[in-house]
Amino acid sequence: MMFFAATLAILVTMGLALIRALMGPTVYDRVLAVNTFGTKTVLLIALLGFLTGRPDFLDISLVYALINFIGTIAVLKLIKYGDLGTIGQETEPKP
Amino acid sequence: MQVALDILSWLLLIAGSAFALIGAAGLIRFPDVYARMHAAGITDTLGAGLIISGLMIQGGFTLVTVKLAAILIFLLYTSPTSTYALANAAYSRGLQPLLGKRDADTAEKESS
After folding, report:
1. Is the confidence metric ipTM above 0.90 for this complex?
2. Which one of A2, A39, A72 has the shortest CB-CB distance to B10?
3. Which residues from chain B sit within 8 angstroms of residue A26, using beta carbons?
């Protein structure tokens, strides 16, 4: 029962993060909201794994945490340097 | 003994989801990106940490707990890093934080 309550709270948190993603004036709000959404998805999958009694969900949530982090860093590099950079070329942040 | 562990893990789960909600509310209400990063940090570290430790108690001494510990350690390392990268990208592209101003529109009035 308590897993269900925690899952509901996480779903509400994800909804609020989505609202911030839609409302966010700057692109950094959106990246922040999507990053928070991804972290909450990790928690949601782990909770659902416990709720349905299937321990293999935890591997999925671990992989999702890894991918979420890499995605956020890639988006931020794209924003800061304008492109994801070519090998061996020194990129300057756009003014 | 088992009942005590169950109650403890349920308390941790409830506290973790409460902090997640508080952080998400802060994510909505704060006036500035840098303030919202603090609110998002609350959900990432406290919310996730308490919920995962609550699940670890439920998991007992099995492989499940090891996987949950791996997730927790990874989250505790990467969420500050991604928040730092976000702040660095925002500040290097010229997004000024609202230092001591009431909120965004008073900032415009003062700067114009």
Report:
1. no
2. A2
3. 33, 90, 95
